[in-house]
């Protein structure tokens, strides 16, 4: 087992850290307060190759690996969790399935544009009445002549209001004992596709999400991603990668909270000395640092398995489960260490606390991650 980063990985981490400190961190509070989509940061991330990190260069990406993706995601999310998830959705939930399941034409026309950041992608699985139980989706695509006609809606679609393309999962066959689904890549400008106003959220406010409606949307066979009838597997395999992205986002949030807590504990005095001298604070910092480290190791292991091309459903689920719940605990402790200042917006700790919460919900709740893990360990 090698814990050493390659020169390339360390360089990318350094670039991401400097970029995040210089360009993102100074604006993160404003993005949050105004719920402002960070247009300029998305553009800069595209220029740095952060929107298609693990996509080969011939398809517009940076040609790096999943470990590099984790490292960059952690740094970007440490500055701004909204910017982190915008990056994660485009990389993991859009480019990754196009690379894995797309036709050469889809890769040349769509993947190239999205991995280079010229265009942006999003992922439509969740529906108003179908979240954790994703197979119960109501969106349908019926074959009529040589066209597929899609009707339905998807909600909580991160990047939705700004995306150029969406991967949509729809029921395409109800005839057998098991409903079959198919994945489609749909340009957002297709007649019949409309996006609602963005959701008002507790955290990650700058990463706009919305409901998207599909009304008699006509698509050709060239919009199909993967095989007809295999859409649910495309969704699940995509989420195996997506969960690594969200685990990395949680790492970044936790790291920001820990770093700020260490700095504050050294500077803030109580009872005649810096609060860092008190064991009550030291024990909190120790637990925070240990949990962050454990979460990072789980996440890097899942990424390393992805890079090796081996199935990593359990490892991704464990990484996301642990990193997201640890992030909630770490940001909770960070508020406690900062006392009243943690509860105000002054140090940005309350933003990290609000942002951490979603990591336990999207791309599969903690309960769903536990189900995925249980299914694997019970099979073993
Ligand atoms: N890779 C490939 N195939 C897989 C797979 C994987 N990781 N996981 C399951 N499958 C296959 C199974 O082998 C099975 O195949 P067969 O039909 O041939 O046997 C098929 O998929 C169905 O699997 P299950 O029977 O396990 O399916 P299920 O209905 O019991 O559901 C579940 C499993 C884990 C609960 C799944 O529904 C799930 O992950 N739910 C959570 C959904 C989710 O994460 N949504 C997030 C939305 S995206 C988002 O949040 C984006 C954002 O805003 C950032």
Protein model, in words:
It is globular, with a radius of gyration of 21 Å. It is an alpha+beta fold and 380 residues long. The model has no long low-confidence stretch (mean pLDDT 98). The protein has a four-stranded mixed beta sheet with strand order 1-4-5-8. Strands 2-3-7-6 form a four-stranded antiparallel beta sheet, with helices on one face. A two-stranded antiparallel ribbon has the order 9-10. The protein has helices spanning 7-34, 39-48, 66-79, 81-101, 104-115, 231-267, 279-308, 313-338, 340-343, 349-358, 366-379, and strands spanning 121-124, 140-144, 147-158, 165-173, 180-187, 193-195, 209-219, 224-225, 269-270, 273-274. It contains eleven helices and ten strands. 52% of the residues are buried. The protein binds acetoacetyl-coenzyme A (CAA). Acetoacetyl-coenzyme A binds next to helix 4, strand 3, helix 6 and helix 11. Residues 85, 89, 93, 123, 125-126, 132, 134-135, 156, 158, 232-233, 236-237, 239-240, 313, 362-364, 368, 371-372 line the site of acetoacetyl-coenzyme A.
